[in-house]
C-alpha cells in the first residue's frame, strides 16, 4: 500500500508544449487545455507513472494506433489537419489522467496591404493574408509620419474585418508608414509599407447626376450633379474639386469631354438632334493635380429637346386638268411642311399626272382608230361606185 501511495504521489503528467518565438498570452486565443503546434512537423508528449504503470492514449475517444505510442509516450510524425482533435491518456482502469485539444497551423506571415484615400480627412487601409495559418489570428495596426518615433493607432472599428482607419492625418506631409502586425499562438510578424497620401487621393464618384432638356434648344443638354458625400462640404472651400464630363450618342464608340472647376453643372452645346445620349461625371482634387480621378459615375441617358408635333388640319384643294375635273384632300398646317410630307405630295402629283397622260394617250389612240375605220369605209364606198360606173358603160344602149 505505501508503494502505491508513492506512485500516486509521484504522478508526472507531461503535456505537449511549444516554444514561441514571441511570447503571446494563451488566454486570448483558446480555453485552457488547448495547444497549438506547427503543421507538418513532429509533435510528442508523455503521460505516465514513475512506477511505470501502463497508460492508454485516446484520440477523440478512440484508441490511438499502436505505431504512435511507445512506453506511455505519444509521437505524431509529419502532422496533418486530420490529427487535430482531443487527445487523452488513461490508466489501466480507464481513469482519465490528462486531456488536451490539439490545433495545427503555421506561424504568421506577411500580409498584402492596400490603402485608399477618399478625402483629406480619412485613410482606409485593408489587408489579406498571403498565407493561411489555420489558427486564431488577431492584428495590431498603427501608423507614423515620416519615420517619426511617435506611433498612432490605425483604428479597427469592426473585429473580424481586416480594415483600419487613420483619421485626420497631418496636411503638411504626404508620406505615411502603415504597420500591420499579424499575431497567432505561434508568433507574430509585421508588415510595414509607406504610402503617399497625395498620390492615393481619389475621390468617390459624383452623386445624384441629372440631365435636363433645354427648352427650344434641340442641340443642348443641361447636366447637374452633387459632390460625393464622402467629400464633406466643410472642406470644399479649402479643397475644391474639379469635374470632367463625358457624353456620346448611343451607338457611338467616341466620347466628347468637358471640364469645370468647382461648378456642379455643365451645358452640352453640340448634342446630336433627336438622339439619345449617355452622360457620366468624375471628380479630382483641384489643387493636387497628380492625385487620381474618381471612377466614372453611373450612366445617365437623356435626349435633347424635340419640337412638339402639331395635329394637322385638312383642306380640300382643287386641281383642274383638261378633260378632267379632279379634286382630292391635302393636309396643310400653318407651319412649314415637313420634307417627308412634301415628298409624299410631290409623289401623289406625279402619279396623278401619269394617270392623266395615260388617259390622254388612250383617247388619242381611240380617235385615231375611229378615223382609220371611217377612212376605210369611205374607200370601200368609192370602189363600189367606180365598179358600178364601169359596168354601166359596158352595157349596149
From TrEMBL:
Gene3D superfamilies in UniProt: Immunoglobulins (2.60.40.10)
PROSITE patterns registered for this protein in UniProt: FN3
UniProt keyword terms in alphabetical order: Glycoprotein, Immunoglobulin domain, Membrane, Signal, Transmembrane, Transmembrane helix
Annotated signal sequence range: 1-26
Spans traversing the lipid bilayer: 347-373
Chain ranges of the Fibronectin type-III domain: 205-305
InterPro entries attached to this UniProt entry: FN3_dom, FN3_sf, Ig-like_dom_sf, Ig-like_fold, IL11/IL27_subunit_beta
Keyword Transmembrane helix included in the entry's annotation: yes
Sequence similarity: Belongs to the type I cytokine receptor family. Type 3 subfamily.
Protein's recorded name: Interleukin 11 receptor, alpha
Amino acid at each position: 500500500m505505501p508503494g502505491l501511495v508513492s506512485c500516486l504521489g509521484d504522478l508526472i503528467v507531461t503535456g505537449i508544449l511549444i516554444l514561441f518565438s514571441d511570447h503571446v498570452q494563451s488566454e486570448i486565443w483558446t480555453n485552457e487545455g488547448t495547444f497549438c503546434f506547427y503543421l507538418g512537423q513532429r509533435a510528442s508528449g508523455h503521460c505516465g507513472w514513475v512506477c511505470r504503470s501502463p497508460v492508454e492514449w485516446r484520440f477523440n475517444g478512440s484508441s490511438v494506433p499502436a505505431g504512435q505510442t511507445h512506453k506511455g509516450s505519444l509521437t505524431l510524425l509529419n502532422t496533418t489537419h486530420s490529427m487535430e482533435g482531443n487527445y487523452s491518456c488513461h490508466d489501466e482502469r480507464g481513469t482519465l489522467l490528462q486531456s488536451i485539444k490539439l490545433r495545427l497551423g503555421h506561424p504568421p506571415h506577411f500580409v498584402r496591404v492596400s490603402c485608399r484615400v477618399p478625402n483629406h480627412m480619412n485613410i482606409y487601409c485593408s489587408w489579406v493574408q498571403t498565407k493561411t495559418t489555420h489558427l486564431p489570428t488577431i492584428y495590431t495596426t498603427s501608423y507614423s509620419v515620416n519615420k517619426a518615433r511617435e506611433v498612432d493607432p490605425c483604428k479597427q472599428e469592426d473585429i473580424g474585418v481586416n480594415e483600419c482607419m487613420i483619421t485626420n492625418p497631418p496636411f503638411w506631409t504626404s508620406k505615411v508608414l502603415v504597420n500591420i502586425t499579424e499575431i497567432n499562438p505561434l508568433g507574430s510578424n509585421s508588415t510595414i509599407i509607406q504610402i503617399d497620401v497625395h498620390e492615393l487621393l481619389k475621390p468617390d464618384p459624383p452623386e445624384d447626376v441629372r440631365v435636363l432638356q433645354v427648352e427650344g434648344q434641340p442641340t443642348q443638354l443641361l447636366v447637374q450633379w452633387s459632390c460625393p458625400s464622402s467629400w464633406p462640404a466643410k472642406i470644399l472651400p479649402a479643397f475644391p474639386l474639379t469635374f470632367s464630363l463625358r457624353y456620346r450618342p448611343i451607338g457611338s464608340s467616341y466620347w466628347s469631354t468637358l471640364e469645370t472647376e468647382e461648378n456642379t453643372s455643365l451645358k452640352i452645346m453640340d448634342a446630336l438632334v433627336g438622339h439619345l445620349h449617355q452622360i457620366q461625371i468624375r471628380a479630382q482634387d483641384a489643387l493636387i493635380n497628380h492625385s487620381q480621378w474618381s471612377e466614372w459615375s453611373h450612366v445617365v441617358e437623356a435626349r435633347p429637346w424635340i419640337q412638339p408635333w402639331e395635329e394637322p388640319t385638312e383642306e380640300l384643294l382643287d386641281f383642274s386638268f383638261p378633260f378632267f375635273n379632279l379634286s382630292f384632300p391635302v393636309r396643310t398646317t400653318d407651319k412649314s411642311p415637313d420634307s417627308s410630307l412634301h415628298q409624299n405630295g410631290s409623289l401623289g402629283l406625279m402619279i396623278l399626272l401619269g394617270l392623266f397622260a395615260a388617259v390622254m394617250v388612250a383617247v388619242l389612240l381611240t380617235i385615231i382608230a375611229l378615223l382609220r375605220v371611217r377612212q376605210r369605209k369611205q374607200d370601200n364606198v368609192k370602189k363600189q361606185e367606180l365598179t358600178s360606173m364601169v359596168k354601166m358603160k359596158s352595157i349596149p344602149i
